[in-house]
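call fold(seq) -> tokens
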Amino acid sequence: MELAHRPIGVFDSGVGGLTVFHALKRRLPHESMVYFGDRARCPYGDRDPREVARFALEIGRYLERLGVKLLVVACNTATAVALPRLREELAIDVVGVIEPGASQAVQASETGRIGVIGTSVTVASHAYADALRSLRPDVCVTEVACPLFVPLVEQGHVDGEAVEAVVRDSLRPLLQERIDTLVLGCTHYPLLMPVIRRVLGPAIRVISSADATAARVAELLAERGLEAPRGHEGDACFLTTGDTASLRMALATWFGEVPGERAVRHVSLPISDQPLQRTAP
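ret:
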């Protein structure tokens, strides 16, 4: 297959990376994509970073063998602990979500007081703080781990009084720091955006890295001459190590997408070399 016609690979620990997938789809409608959600081992955020790096390399190598032309790590935890090694070991370009999100946050903040929420591993890595300070050395960064958010999203709980109580309690330290911008340092968190905005109020800008990541992918494809032809009709395939029915439900509930019967497939662990059957959604 001609390289430009090959799909873009996107992976996350679960369904959160679908926020990046759909930003890519909006930005690059002619591109085909393969989404991989590692729901059997989700969440990554409370695991040993070495374990997360191993999972990321396993999935990255698998998607490279399937023939993707570029890999998007649509998981902040995996980006924080595995991006350099993925770039070193894979023969394709690899884009993470932290650098694009940090760049957008620096542009949005007027006071330089920026909050970052993420999983325990992402926050402990200080990857966002390092990226933000590399762009603006005088920035004041407050990082807060929100380990309850991913389980809420994965279980389909994204609104309501109980969810708002969890979000309000988790974000309280950031409100005390008088931040003017908040970075959602996990791709699951945009699915809680309505609740987060209610808790923070209109004065605080909320940054999701999904659109910024899609813009970076578009730039990279153009630089490499890997853009799919304009007349090409992009298709999509969704792979999961978990339950295909719950992935279908997430796609339908949150994104109004109903893939074709063969477009959603279970992948067994350990990940095999089973060839990918490409189908239109």
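The radius of gyration is 18 Å.
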